Amino acid sequence: MENSMLLAKIFGSYFIIIALGGLFNLKNYQKVLDDFCKSSALIYLGGIFALVFGLLVLVFHNVWVANWTVIITILGWGALIKGAWLIIFPNTVAKFTQGYQKKTTLLTLHLVIALALGIFLIAKGCGLVSCPLAR
Fold it and tell me: Number of structural domains, the chain?
């Protein structure tokens, strides 16, 4: 449970900062996505970072239980899959992210969900909230 609390704080902080940065600077965030898609080196580095981060999370927290901590495991697997995707299929990244560049509401929805998830994880990591998912 200690690993869960620590990782919840890390993931929660990450999601809150990224979401707020995106929500307050939406046009700039869309430009960053556009620039990222145009750089093979950035796509590869992004894949490496996501892959390593996902592997680290899974080495320390590959826990499949029926409570909130499974969110961390799912995020670890998501990072691992995203990293592998960016490395193995880099040419598909531009097509995928065009949806975010053209549809502001889709990007905003994604950022709001990330913010809510970040707040939830920070609260769980600090022991501030109890919910039906907590056991």
Answer: 1
